[in-house]
Amino acid sequence: MQNQNPANPKKPPEETPPNAAPPPPAAGENEPGEIDLNTVFPDETSDLNALFPDSEMKRFLKKIERNKKEIRVMTRNFAETDETC
Protein backbone atom coordinates (compact mmCIF):
# COMPACT_ATOMS: atom_id res chain seq x y z
CA MET A 1 0.00 0.00 0.00
CA GLN A 2 1.38 3.41 -1.00
CA ASN A 3 1.20 6.45 1.22
CA GLN A 4 -0.24 9.58 -0.30
CA ASN A 5 1.61 12.83 -0.05
CA PRO A 6 -0.76 15.13 1.92
CA ALA A 7 0.53 18.16 0.04
CA ASN A 8 -0.40 16.56 -3.28
CA PRO A 9 -3.34 14.18 -2.76
CA LYS A 10 -4.50 12.02 -5.64
CA LYS A 11 -7.99 12.73 -6.85
CA PRO A 12 -10.17 10.16 -8.54
CA PRO A 13 -10.77 10.91 -12.21
CA GLU A 14 -13.89 12.94 -12.82
CA GLU A 15 -16.57 11.06 -14.67
CA THR A 16 -19.31 12.58 -16.71
CA PRO A 17 -22.74 11.11 -16.15
CA PRO A 18 -23.84 8.85 -19.02
CA ASN A 19 -26.90 10.99 -19.70
CA ALA A 20 -24.99 14.30 -19.72
CA ALA A 21 -25.47 16.28 -22.91
CA PRO A 22 -22.38 17.67 -24.63
CA PRO A 23 -21.90 21.43 -24.25
CA PRO A 24 -23.65 23.50 -26.90
CA PRO A 25 -21.45 24.63 -29.78
CA ALA A 26 -20.12 28.16 -29.60
CA ALA A 27 -21.31 30.80 -32.03
CA GLY A 28 -20.07 29.94 -35.50
CA GLU A 29 -19.59 26.23 -34.80
CA ASN A 30 -21.80 23.43 -36.13
CA GLU A 31 -20.03 20.40 -34.71
CA PRO A 32 -17.16 20.29 -32.23
CA GLY A 33 -14.19 21.75 -34.07
CA GLU A 34 -16.19 22.83 -37.12
CA ILE A 35 -16.56 26.59 -37.57
CA ASP A 36 -19.20 28.17 -39.78
CA LEU A 37 -17.63 31.40 -41.03
CA ASN A 38 -20.95 32.58 -42.43
CA THR A 39 -22.28 32.96 -38.86
CA VAL A 40 -19.06 34.55 -37.61
CA PHE A 41 -19.24 37.16 -40.40
CA PRO A 42 -23.01 37.56 -41.02
CA ASP A 43 -22.63 40.72 -43.15
CA GLU A 44 -20.64 38.97 -45.87
CA THR A 45 -22.59 38.03 -48.99
CA SER A 46 -20.33 35.30 -50.36
CA ASP A 47 -20.01 31.78 -48.94
CA LEU A 48 -16.97 32.09 -46.69
CA ASN A 49 -16.91 28.36 -45.94
CA ALA A 50 -16.33 27.67 -49.64
CA LEU A 51 -13.64 30.36 -49.85
CA PHE A 52 -11.81 29.09 -46.75
CA PRO A 53 -12.31 25.32 -46.44
CA ASP A 54 -9.23 24.79 -44.24
CA SER A 55 -10.17 24.39 -40.55
CA GLU A 56 -6.98 26.11 -39.36
CA MET A 57 -7.79 29.18 -41.47
CA LYS A 58 -11.36 29.19 -40.13
CA ARG A 59 -10.06 29.16 -36.53
CA PHE A 60 -7.62 31.94 -37.36
CA LEU A 61 -10.31 34.14 -38.92
CA LYS A 62 -12.65 33.54 -35.99
CA LYS A 63 -9.91 34.56 -33.53
CA ILE A 64 -9.26 37.74 -35.52
CA GLU A 65 -12.94 38.67 -35.41
CA ARG A 66 -13.12 37.99 -31.66
CA ASN A 67 -10.01 40.13 -31.09
CA LYS A 68 -11.50 42.98 -33.13
CA LYS A 69 -14.63 42.90 -30.95
CA GLU A 70 -12.54 42.90 -27.76
CA ILE A 71 -10.48 45.86 -29.01
CA ARG A 72 -13.68 47.82 -29.76
CA VAL A 73 -14.98 47.13 -26.23
CA MET A 74 -11.68 48.17 -24.62
CA THR A 75 -11.49 51.33 -26.72
CA ARG A 76 -15.07 52.24 -25.76
CA ASN A 77 -14.30 51.61 -22.08
CA PHE A 78 -11.18 53.77 -22.24
CA ALA A 79 -13.14 56.57 -23.93
CA GLU A 80 -15.82 56.41 -21.21
CA THR A 81 -13.15 56.49 -18.52
CA ASP A 82 -11.51 59.57 -20.11
CA GLU A 83 -14.86 61.38 -20.26
CA THR A 84 -15.50 60.87 -16.52
CA CYS A 85 -12.06 62.17 -15.50
Task: Provide keyphrases for this structure.
85 residues, mainly alpha, 45% helix, flat
How would you describe what is shown here?
The protein is mainly alpha-helical and 85 residues long. The protein has a domain at 51-85. It is built from three helices and no strands. The relative contact order is 0.08. The model has no long low-confidence stretch (mean pLDDT 78).
Give me the secondary-structure topology.
Elements: H1 37-40, H2 48-51, H3 55-84
Write a concise synopsis of the structure shown.
The protein has 85 residues and is mostly helical.
Helix and strand composition category: mainly alpha
Number of helices: 3
* Rough outline: flat
- Reading the helices and strands in chain order gives HHH
Radius of gyration: 22 Å
What value does the average pLDDT take? 78
